[in-house]
Write a structure and sequence with these properties.
Distance between the termini: 92 Å
Largest sheet: none
Helix content: over 70%
Number of strands: 0
Radius of gyration: 27 Å
Order of helices and strands: HHHHH
Number of domains: 2
Strand content: under 5%
Shape: elongated
Structural class: mainly alpha
Number of helices: 5
């Protein structure tokens, strides 16, 4: 493998051979963080959670090799579609029930 192939190979980056030394780590400028958030459609939020819950998220995140905040984002992202589906189904059931109750009343008016 020549030098260019070595640079293009992803394995050393993925396994941590390259890129994990402290001397190469720096925080991105705030403008770059804001640009990234905007590009990804992310918005920072502040939320108070029980310490025990945060510790549990950290434990789970460590097991999966991710940060606890991205894990929280993933959990919320998975939860919301199901919750929205439940709300939609409840509203549809309520509308159907209201329609069923309205049918007999309209028939009574036609007979009279």
């Amino acid at each position: 493998m020549n030098g260019i192939e070595a640079l293009l190979c992803q394995e050393p980056w993925e396994d941590g051979t390259l890129g994990r030394e402290a001397k190469y780590v720096a925080r991105a400028p705030l403008a770059a963080e804001n640009d990234l958030d905007e590009a990804l459609g992310l918005q920072p939020v502040s939320i108070r959670l029980p310490r025990q819950l945060i510790d549990q998220f950290k434990l789970i995140a460590h097991f999966y090799g991710v940060g606890y905040q991205p894990l929280m984002r993933d959990v919320l992202t998975r939860f919301v579609p199901g919750a929205l589906q439940e709300i939609l189904q409840a509203q549809q059931a309520q509308a159907q029930k209201a329609a069923q109750q309205a049918k007999p009343a309209s028939k009574d008016r036609q007979v009279a």
